[in-house]
Amino acid sequence: MITSERMAMVDRNAAALGVPRKQLMESSGNAVARAVREHADPGDRVLLVCGRGNNGGDAMVAARFLADYDAHAVLLGRPETIATDIARENWDALDASELPADTVADSRAFALDDYAPDLVVDAMLGTGVTGALREPEATVARQLNAADVPVVSVDVPSGVDADTGDSEGVAVDADRVVTFHDDKPGLADLDAAVTVADIGVPEAAETFVGPGDLRALDRASDSHKGDNGEVLVVGGGPYTGAPALAGRAALRAGADLVRVACPDPVAREIQGYGPDLIVRPFPGEHLAPPHVERLLDLAAGHDTVVFGPGLGSDGATLDAVADFLAAYDGRAVVDADALQVVPEVDTAADLICTPHQGELRKMGGETASDWRDRADRVREFAAGLGHTLLVKGAYDVVSDGDAVRVGRTGNPGMTVGGTGDVLAGVTGALAAQIDSPLQAAALAAYANGRAGDAAAESFGDGLAASDLPDRIPQALRDEGE
Ligand SMILES: NC(=O)C1=CN([C@@H]2O[C@H](COP(=O)(O)OP(=O)(O)OC[C@H]3O[C@@H](n4cnc5c(N)ncnc54)[C@H](O)[C@@H]3O)[C@@H](O)[C@H]2O)[C@H](O)CC1
Ligand SMILES: [K+]
Question: One GO molecular-function annotation for this sequence (predicted)?
Answer without folding.
Answer: metal ion binding
